[in-house]
């Protein structure tokens, strides 16, 4: 794979100056055009140590306007990063629409290193590579222009590069014992890199292997490739996606199987509430000590009692260790990113709980039904969500997903009650009434959501909420069960 | 001071239930009203260990809707927090407008502990208390409703509380060796607390000392005090501030003393540029190794050459270690906070540099001149800014503030050139032309800014930018000088 990048290509100084001058102007103009566009440009740098990745990133910053560039190099994770799933730091560093992000030693680095060191077997490595591909696919499908460069040096060329750096007192510090150790493992690195490139090369996230023997050649190649990719994208008129075929009527939905007749009388409710709140208080303390984080997702019909259920849950917890995140209209900063970005940013630290009052499932519920997201967007959201949740669970986070279900009639009754009770009136909006008219569409969306995202690792719990008392206890019981399985199982 | 909080006040269970029921409804309604208001409610809890601060915060979360409450308890700082000035974590946790923030072991805790342990002498303690007062004043003047509770227990009452907690197997873990050590230091804590309360009690950030012997009494007192404060504020019509007297004409401004005739010819420029960029590269590496952070502020006339000067600066730096933050319209998340919040959030980690292209000085420049901030807001900004910068410098951050100055005629020349050059046209907006008409007002604002915010710790450098080459070298030299003084001085 790398033979084509060991040809000793060189660019003379004069030619470099000439080509550089034109390229700079073109890049600057494209960067200005990008500022008005609705996608980010994400540029990933990988490659052999000493092949000039850092130098090229610096050059790109010098050629373009650094105000609209985000450059991130990932070293040892901070403790705040370590307490979240590994990709948290990459999500956190994503450039917003209209800007360019340059990434060094980013998401491809840890698996590559682990594979070269033999810490990952082939199967585990392939899984890590599939995660990379899924991450990039998610961003590309959201519109991100992704360009990936692999800076290559042959074994002997790398040795020469290190020797040269070591000779100069100004650059000697850059070559470490670790670099030489890696050089001795050259073949392991190359084998791991080949597999990485093969498995994560995609039409909308292509790798460009660049010969790094001559820095001038490498820099121009990177700059010109980036220029071409940006120009192509900025000049392509957005294609209207073909309308997807309508989904078949699912017939009876999963919701129809929920027994809405389940009730708790007051005395029983008091007993059960006290019992499960006591249990939750205990488990909450254990989770804090063990550093186990929890994410609870509340979805359900308007007026299904999410707020009341959340309060019964939090009443048993220490306010210093949970946070309730109400999900409403995204802020403009959030809108400038992939729709999952706003949820990634709220993930809890170790030992804490975050309760989402509505969540990322808005994409396949309200946004789908109201036509706020195009069909291809909410369709691919199922896979994106499964991948996101898998990362949470793999990290050891307890994930609980609750759908609070009530009948159409009960909802109407509660709406009317709200309209008549002064201190509850604020809860009821015109939009709530409008949503009621779309009940059938929403049922279908809920059905498909459960079908596609209730996985073994992250199952949905459908809660019969016709009776608030029953629902509240059921919610507590579910959260306790999930915590207990993680802490004691 | 605390005698009045050692009277053994108690509330019987039945009375508690009765008063609690009414209070809850009132708090919930006020919380709803607050959601539409344009200020946050910040509630600070201090007090003796074991006096029930945590329990009360939990109760407040149970009484109100936890979705609109931010609860933060500050423990050991994370490494990301340690790399910024101490108040970074508090700014980060501030509730946005319309919400309630509950804070435990927050900004009053570290100085109080340090004083009780004898690590701070009286003078240093007073300085720390002045910082607390300044922080709260800054937030209050921006509209925040601040309510502070001191939960008190007498020496014997605290001992009894610990004993009782220790007896119950369920709460035994809550009493630590540290609690008993602090109990033995009771008098030191009380002395430090008295001074804290006296020095940080202000009309718009008052302390309420609450007897903590009986939790029911304490919780109701806190809840009712908070209710009254919120109600008072929500019912008070905003008073129109009296127009401030116009500032006297400053006569010749500091800008008139800048020698705009300074120039560099091309050859000299090349040499000097190379020399100072080389020096900066070296200092940048040293700063990274030493973990020294740098903040560079660029202000100046439109077309004064900020962008070009920034690029000459960054060209000498490793892109992995700096970030350029262009300051434009605030995002809606930023607008929901104090205007300094958006700058606090961008402060660099250890060893990194952040370059602000325009900055917090917008408040006393464009916002003042264009009438975007009322006079009382931009007037108090001088003090707020000085305090902010003092914290940066105290933390060890290198702070460089640059004003790029050009004459009115040179600006006109550059505007015309921009208008005529296709690839520069995007830089020029109608607003730029409008701003030109206000030159005299801006000069006055710049003069006052320099007068009030050029401090020994954070001086302004006024750069003659009539000649771009001279300005660029001057900028590099200034940044190098500041870095060298910090690293080698």
From TrEMBL, chains A, B:
GO molecular function: polyphosphate:AMP phosphotransferase activity
Matching SUPFAM superfamilies: P-loop containing nucleoside triphosphate hydrolases
Keyword flag Transferase: yes
Annotated region (Disordered), positions in chain: 234-255
Composition bias type Pro residues, residue spans: 238-251
Alphabetic keyword roster: Transferase
Span of domain Polyphosphate kinase-2-related: 12-232, 264-484
Keyword check for Transferase: yes
GO biological process, one term: polyphosphate metabolic process
Annotated InterPro entries: P-loop_NTPase, PolyP_AMP_Tfrase, PPK2-related
NCBIfam families noted in UniProt: poly_P_AMP_trns
Name under which the protein is recorded: Polyphosphate:AMP phosphotransferase
Organism: Inmirania thermothiophila
């Amino acid at each position: 794979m790398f033979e084509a990048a060991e040809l000793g290509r060189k660019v003379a100084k004069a030619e470099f100056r000439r080509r550089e001058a034109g390229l700079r102007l073109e890049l600057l103009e494209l960067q200005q055009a990008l500022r008005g566009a609705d996608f980010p440009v994400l540029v990933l740098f990988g490659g052999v140590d000493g092949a000039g990745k850092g130098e090229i990133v610096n050059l790109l910053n010098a050629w373009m306007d650094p105000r609209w560039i985000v450059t991130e190099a990932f070293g040892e994770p901070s403790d705040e990063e370590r307490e979240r799933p590994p990709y948290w730091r990459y999500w956190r560093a994503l450039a917003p629409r209209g800007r360019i992000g340059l990434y060094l030693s980013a998401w491809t680095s840890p698996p590559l290193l682990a594979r070269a060191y033999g810490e990952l077997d082939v199967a585990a490595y392939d899984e890590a590579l599939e995660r990379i591909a899924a991450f990039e696919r998610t961003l590309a499908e959201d519109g991100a222009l992704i360009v990936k460069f692999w800076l290559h040096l042959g074994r002997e060329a790398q040795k020469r590069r290190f020797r040269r750096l070591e000779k100069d007192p100004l650059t000697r510090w850059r070559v470490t014992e670790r670099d030489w150790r890696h050089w001795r493992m050259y073949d392991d690195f190359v084998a791991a890199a080949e597999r990485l490139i093969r498995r994560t090369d995609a039409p909308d996230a292509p790798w460009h292997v660049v010969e790094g023997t001559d820095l001038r050649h490498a820099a121009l190649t990177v700059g010109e490739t980036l220029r071409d990719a940006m120009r192509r994208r900025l000049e392509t008129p957005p294609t209207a996606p073909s309308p997807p075929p309508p989904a078949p009527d699912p017939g009876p939905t999963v919701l129809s199987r929920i027994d809405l007749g389940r009730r708790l009388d007051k005395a029983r409710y008091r007993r059960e509430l006290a019992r499960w709140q006591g249990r939750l208080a205990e488990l909450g303390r254990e989770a804090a000590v063990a550093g186990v984080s929890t994410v609870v997702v509340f979805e359900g019909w308007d007026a299904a009692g999410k707020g009341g259920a959340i309060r019964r849950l939090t009443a048993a917890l220490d306010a210093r260790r949970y946070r309730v995140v109400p999900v409403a209209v995204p802020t403009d900063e959030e809108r400038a990113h992939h729709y999952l970005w706003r949820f990634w940013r709220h993930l809890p630290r170790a030992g804490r709980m975050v309760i989402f009052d509505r969540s990322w499932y808005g994409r396949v519920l309200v946004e789908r039904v109201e036509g706020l997201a195009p069909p291809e967007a909410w369709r691919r959201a199922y896979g994106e969500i499964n991948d996101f949740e898998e990362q949470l669970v793999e990290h050891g986070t307890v994930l609980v997903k609750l759908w609070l279900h009530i009948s159409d009639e009960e909802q109407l009754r509660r709406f009317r009650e709200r309209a008549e009770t002064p201190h509850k009136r604020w809860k009821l909006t015109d939009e709530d009434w409008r949503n009621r008219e779309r009940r059938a569409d929403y049922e279908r969306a809920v059905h498909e959501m459960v079908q596609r995202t209730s996985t073994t690792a992250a199952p949905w719990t459908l809660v019969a909420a016709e009776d608030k008392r029953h629902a509240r206890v059921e919610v507590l019981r579910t959260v306790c069960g999930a915590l207990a399985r993680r802490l004691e199982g």
